[in-house]
């Protein structure tokens, strides 16, 4: 009896207890109005369009400002997915040329409202920088995620198509709220299975949920699908039966999903099949798929992430393979290029392909999931990395040919333009593992929409929407975010060092890593080249001459040691330990200082964060606090491992004013994390 009474009392209390904050609401924390304050009228559209209805509903539910008219004006084609917002006295008028523009405008208004922004009296015109703003999920059909650190895949393949998780719609809404309009559901290391009829029915179910949020579904395809699924003798793109197989497959897909987006393809890369298996080129392969999709308006995103162990400097290979194919791709093919020439390292120079292939549509691929940035344990805000890449000048058409300009709507062949990022989303209640990793999803969407936004502006918006608008919280936390990427570069691989990661899982440091008989281009020594003389990869004309792939004057800027930006020095040069840096320090001393600085910065983040306790909920506060502790421990691990290892070559002491190592190198060498490839 007493137990029952207690239980009853406990149950009665539950509604009065604050609901534990788990981060699941992301940046969408508008408070619901009991009753709409003002009307929302709709003009210029006859039938009840579900996207327009959604825009209206979001505003009725959450908008606290003046009355609004939503209007479609199909003549205003120049707006694309964008919108115009006019405000006069007591009314707001929103004009878009497509229904999705109205939904994006609704989120624009709500974002302003929630961040305390003012609607200026003049009109606002927003036109997206890229036509296709796409997330790439590296999700496998068995529910694991390649390089995913936020739990299992969001897609419950076994339950689809019948059962629809409520998260599918939440996912679509979150994406729509930041302008993302495309999603590739599955891993680029693609299973052919995703194209069989059973899976296509599941894909259709997801597409049906996403549609009213303006999101198109794409699939990664395995180039050998005709052989694996269709039973053909091979998948040679020049064979008629192979071409017929893809055409029939495209027809089958579009019958189910009339607005299907297209295919993403990783071919002849890291063991994936591709046209080169049959002596054909990347263009032959891409064009064959493009022809199959063309009648339905589908696109091919063909990845340029290719390299072979036996050839030249890995950093040169994508350029070498793709530049000869310039102008040979169909107009519905976009070559998808990782931001750097190696692989999502903490810092890389931009991929020289962006400054080449003038007759080929090109798109950027960023990585949100922190494969090389501490997984979901480290707070690393990536907008500064994205900005650095977008602002990089390729000099393709003289000064000012930034990657932002080269890839966005304004330039580039008058074809569809696109930008992609590898998603960091999983089943975790906060979606991304680390609460602050949500900011990277957010930042990508905002930059895909407007590639001129600053990292600080995006961080400010995100903090205001996600946590609090109090200045005493926003300002210091913004500083943490803005400094976090450089901190990670400093404690992991400063001055242009790269790929010092532990084999396969890429979490911790293993600059000594060497798997006997393993691929040299997967070994850290391939990249750092430390020896008694110095450290770094010589990519100047005396070395691999990768610098020649950059347009003048960059070839000389990067190629001549004295001109090379110091944050890329060891990317392009093998530099003596006693080389004088601009600061007057020797290279060895500067290296030690950078590692130390990385550690000190994370310690500073901890101090700042601990003072934030009173501003936010205890759940997210504690979670971030404990992750920062882990990051601080990892930063020391990185520093101790790298400095003690490189010291074996430099033969010099760590400057005495810096903190001493607290781990033995031998002890660090024994660390083997129990993580599989698919962790
Ligand atoms: C590397 C990842 C690998 C991916 C590959 C890719 O380690 O898991 O499959 O890139 O982008 O960064 O295809």
UniProtKB/TrEMBL annotation:
Domain spans labelled Glycosyl hydrolase family 67 catalytic: 116-431
Keywords: Carbohydrate metabolism, Glycosidase, Hydrolase, Polysaccharide degradation, Xylan degradation
Gene Ontology MF terms in the entry: hydrolase activity
Chain ranges of the Glycosyl hydrolase family 67 C-terminal domain: 432-656
Keyword Hydrolase appears in the UniProt entry: yes
Superkingdom in the source lineage: Bacteria
UniProt xrefs under InterPro entries: A-glucoronidase_C_sf, GH, Glyco_hydro_67_aGlcAse, Glyco_hydro_67_C, Glyco_hydro_67_cat, Hex-like_dom2
Family: Belongs to the glycosyl hydrolase 67 family.
PANTHER family given in the database record: ALPHA-GLUCURONIDASE A
Protein name: Alpha-glucuronidase family glycosyl hydrolase
Provenance organism: Sphingobacterium ginsenosidimutans
Top-level taxonomy: Bacteria, Pseudomonadati, Bacteroidota, Sphingobacteriia, Sphingobacteriales
